[in-house]
Amino acid sequence: MNLPSKRFGFLCLHFALVLFGVSSLRAAVPDPVSEGHEHNIVAAQVMNRTLLAVMEQYYDPARMDPGAMFRGGLDALVKNVAELQVSWSQDKKAVTLHLLQGRITLSADQIKSPWSLSRAFQQIFAFIREHLPTADQPDYRSIEYAATNGMLSTLDPHTNAMLPELWNEMQMNTQGEFEGIGIRITTDKRAPCSGELTVVEVFNNTPAFHAGLKTGDKIIQIDGDSTVNITTDAAAKRLRGKRGTTVNVRIKRPDGSQRDVPIIRQTIPIDSVKWRMLAGQVGYVELVGFQPSSAEEMRDALRALHKQNMKGLILDLRSNPGGLLNAAIDIADLFVSSGTIVTTVGRQREDREVSNAKFADTEPAYPLVVLIDTYSASAAEIVAGAVRNHGRALLVGERSFGKGSVQTIMPLPGEGALRLTVQQYLTPGDISIQAVGVAPDIRLSSYAVNRDALQISSRERSYSEETLAAHLTSPSPLATQRVSRQTSHELPYLIPEKERRLELAEARKCTLEGDERATFRSRYEVEFARELITMTQGATTAELLIDAQRLIASRIAAHDKDLQNAFRRIGINWTSANAPQDAAATTTPSADLQAEIAVVGQSDARQDFRLRVTVTNRGTTAVHRLRGKTKSDNPLLSEIDLAFGRIAPGASQKWEAPITVFPLTSTRVDPVTVHFESDEGIAPAPVSIDVRVQERTPPVLSYAWYLEDLGNGNGHLEPAETFRMHVIVRNDGAGPTFASAANLSANAGIDVEHGHFDIGVLAPGKSAQGTFSFRVHPEFPHAQNNVRFVVEEWVPFKTLLNIALLDQELVLPISALKPAPEAASGTVTISGEQDVWLFETPDAHGRRVAKAAPGAAFAVDKRMGDFFRVVLGKGRTAWVSEKRVVPGGKAQQQHVPVLSMLPDIRIDAAVPNAVSSERIRISGVAHHIAGVRDVLVFVNSEKVLYQLAESNATTLAFSAELPLKAGMNQVQIIARHDERTFDSRVLSIRRTDKSAAAPTTATTAINDDGAKAKANAASSAAP
Fold first, then answer.
1. Torsion over CA of 60, 61, 66 and 69, rounded to 10 degrees?
2. What is the Cα–Cα distance from 635 to 746, expressed in whole angstroms?
3. DSSP string, 236-281
4. Measured distance CA(454)–CA(446) in Å, rounded
5. Distance, CA of 952 to CA of 168 (rounded, Å)
6. Which has the closest alpha carbon to 707: 863, 812, 614?
7. Which of 84, 115, 89, 120 is nearest to 101 (CA)?
8. Terminus of the chain with fewer CB atoms < 10 Å: N or C?
């Protein structure tokens, strides 16, 4: 995983959203990487050490293509260095890099070995070091890691170079312990946490436990520093520390009471095993990861369960991402008495290591059910594959993730680490599950019946090894097959509507119950396994499967009745083909089903709409349980279930599927096709329609801020002083905000006392005002500190989404103690014929906060040197030079605040959402009142334009030719004022295949009242 560079990391942070059609992005402040600008990037030590390890130990040398690795590294550099552009020669044998006024050309066709690859990047790094502006202190370390990971991305998704910060976090997770106080925390903005630092869980027998901390406590100070708007990660770093040291926290209880709690840090074990006894003497063990202590934790749990006369065991591996290979082998060995647990194979045929089970300490034969899902990966799949392939357990749930590779960790210069794929593993029988996964014996599928949320079919896996870019596709040549056996049975079950609504309501809340809260689906799977264990006498996979068939049959019958009742409540007849009203039919059956599709309820002002499908039966026999499902390359419009049920001859049935548009989606057009099926195999031909998804008209915010000095009043931020920050937020866009609010947070050294105010719905052209307060520490060690100002809104989607409309880093210069101003009184009037600037401090080079026109008059309350402090109203003040005013006048406080805003991007002409050409040109203008720095244009992942503005230019015209791939293309236009202030526009353009034959099943059209697409082809006749 790449961490973003300090200079241009927002592209890495946002690009995944862009690929899904996000319409606009706001500036985010990446966490700074200390001393990254001092990293010796030209030496390329990280890259060279990585290349040496890849050459010596990478699992599949055939995947090492130096040319592809070079292109991957270049692509990553382009995303991480804003000013860098690359252009290839027509024959692709040479590449030229452009960085401002610098240019370098390399012979790409000469890069045929890892060391020629290294030499090329050393040249590139030297070129970047020479030409990249140093004023912003480029993070060269992150730039080198980005290029290194770009190379490695061509190998497989699990080989990567980790910056020290990420490596340290990974070590803590795999070692199974950390030094701290023993709590789990969140700054979740949903109620009841509401953005405050909240204790979610207190681990047993830890310092926090013994100090009396409780779930739901709010930590409002850490070592005297306010936690207002602190991030969860930042708080965790403050609370962790060396064993034996003390951290002081101030907690606030739900009743409002507060108390200070000193806590001595200790080594905190991270439990990977959770267990309890269920009804019927069925043991339940959840394994959340594989750590050095996991096997012993498992033994302890089993011993405790045996003491309670355990009859059988449920081993829950759902959402277990894996971990240490040896821990997986040891845990599988508890349940397998002999034979192979796992075989690891390396790059050479002789690099084969077989791990066999030992008879000693094997658990007795009792019913064992293992729960897996699509997030069960790696070490979890080793355990699942071993117990199932040896016939020791029944697997229940979903197909697992399919990660069949093994990584090792190697140190990199500067305390980073390389995670390198060195082996594949084979489950017993030399079976590879790479990119395939382990199939359960019994697949459980949840159904929901509701007009607004229908699910009556299995979903395609949206996340698995096979969905990852550059995943390993071929198993080891030593593998005998890819999968052991397929799922034997599928058990559908209905989520009660009450449970579904409860889960939706809970999703809008901050979770304080920790891991104990479970969805209905999770509870159902556990209960199914528990009931099976209580009724069975078997202890092998085959025996458990025989007894499971009886349980499945009874549950399917109950499910079918529940399903019919649920559909009846919403007006759908879901009876089967052998229903009594159809059993007496004697006429020769014939079928003629026709379908129509339309978009309804859509308008320019409305994002959400409905997809309406109507099916008419023109035949002579009824069709039963007719259902449909959409297919589209837009995830929003794909995998949507539709239900029609029984349609009698001459009757019609319709289903309307509500489409809730993701609020940051850009306007796009996507073809949607509905495929049908029924109990009898009779179905209409597929129907298609082009669906236009309309983007939300966004708000565009500008803001101004004033500091009110509550200390000596000279306007300078000085140690031990308290300030109010008065903020004005204005909506300059065409759309309103939803429920919005403003927040202020700061690093250590500035203690935010009040960091929140609500804005609510801010209509276009309207303004809102609020106040923050903070205190500078008495011994502040820096010349400046930065605070983070965020305006966010809660947007209703399927749950509530928290979206940042503004995310800005404000620089606060901290000065040494300066004299206090003198008291003053009276009024002054702006003189001359030109507008006059008002300043934050008594300094003509200070920050400008407002502008006043000639004749404007203000009350005076302070004087310092040749500056007056004037009163602007509502607690706001500013300084004006006495040279620009005359005494007297009636104070009217007339002034215009200096608003900070994001750059404005305007496209010259409407860009079509669908074209047939391979290239199109767009042009436009970027504007910022304080100057535009540059404009960048990306098409998908390719930067096609970098354009630098002339110094102090407030506008920058740009034009770019866009290469379009077949299908959907995401175009991102970024305009920057500086490193912290930028904005983005995203356009979605579909390139259609003009040579493709026109669809025979549907014509496509859309309008606001629901234009239709019809399929008139009859379905095939039933026998």
1. 20
2. 38
3. HHHH---TT-EEEEEEE-TTS-EEEEEEE-EEEE---EEEEEETTT
4. 11
5. 43
6. 812
7. 84
8. C
Taken in order 55, 60, 66, 70, is the CA torsion positive or negative?
negative
Amino acid at 320: N
Q: Can you tell me which residue has the tokens 């949206």? A: 462
Q: At what angle do helices 45-57 and 140-152 cross, to 10 degrees?
A: 20
Model confidence, pTM: 0.88
Within 13 A of 1021's CA, how many CA atoms are on the CB side?
A: 6
Whether residue 167 contacts residue 485, with contact meaning beta carbons closer than 8 Å, is answered with no
Q: Tens of pLDDT along 739-767?
A: 999 999 988 788 899 999 999 999 999 99
Handedness of CA 300, 304, 307, 308 (dihedral sign): negative
Residue 478 CA to residue 23 CA, distance in Å, equals 48
User: CA 937, 693, 984: angle at the middle one, nearest 5?
Assistant: 25
* Single-letter code of the amino acid located at 595: A
The rounded distance, in Å, linking the Cα atoms of 449 and 634 is 23
> By the 8 A CB rule, do 66 and 47 touch?
no
Q: For 192-245, what is each residue's pLDDT tens digit?
A: 898 899 999 999 899 999 999 999 999 999 998 889 999 898 899 899 999 999
Neighbours of 321 (CB within 10 A): 16
Element (H, E) at 125: helix 114-131
Tokens of 407: 């990584």
| Residues in CB range of 1002: below 8 A, 6 or more apart | 597, 673, 686, 687, 688, 689, 1013, 1014, 1015
d(CA 343, CA 427) in angstroms, rounded, equals 7
User: Which 3 state secondary structure label does DSSP give 444?
Assistant: strand
- For range 482-499, the mean pLDDT: 82
Name 891's Cβ contacts closer than 8 Å, sequence gap at least 6: 827, 857, 858, 859, 871
For tokens 């649920």, the residue is: 566
What is the residue type of 114? P
Q: Is 865 left (phi over 0), alpha (psi -120 to 50) or beta?
A: left
Rounded CA-CA distance 282/260 in Å is 44
Report which secondary-structure segment, H or E, holds 812: strand 800-813
Give kind and range of the element (H or E) at residue 237.
helix 232-239
The helix or strand, by DSSP H or E, that contains position 563, with its residue range, turns out to be helix 541-569
Number of Cβ within a 10 Å radius of residue 166 = 18
Q: Map tokens 């005494």 to a residue.
A: 887
Determine contact, residues 141/163, Cβ cutoff 8 Å. yes
Of the listed ranges 471-475, 550-554, 792-796, the least confidently predicted one is: 471-475
Across the chain, mean pLDDT equals: 88
Rounded-to-integer distance, Cα 1010 and Cα 597, Å? 9
Extract the tokens encoding 392. 């020791």
1001 dihedral zone (left: phi>0; alpha: psi -120 to 50; beta): alpha
115 alpha carbon, distance to own chain's centre: 36
From 473, 382, 487, 379, select the one nearest 435 (Cα to Cα): 473
Q: What are phi and psi of 951, to 5 degrees?
A: -55, 130
Q: What single-letter amino acid sits at 670?
A: D
* Helix ranges, 58-98 (H): 66-80
pLDDT at 1021: 33
- d(Cα 125, Cα 143) in Å, to the nearest integer? 9
Token code pair at residue 568: 């009846």
536 by Cβ neighbours in 10 Å (0-12 / 13-18 / 19+) ranks as buried
**Cβ atoms of residues 817 and 809 within 8 Å:** no
What residues have CB less than 8 Å from 480, skipping those under 6 apart? 429, 430, 431
Q: Per the structure block, which two tokens stand in for 389?
A: 């392939």
Rounded distance between C-alpha atoms, residue 110 and residue 613, angstroms: 57
Identity of residue 593: L
Cα–Cα dist 445/399, whole Å: 11
DSSP state of 730: E
Distance of CA 925 to the CA centre of its chain: 31
Q: Which of 752, 754, 1002, 769 is nearest to 874 (CA)?
A: 769
Nearest to 787 by CA among 761, 801, 807, 767: 807
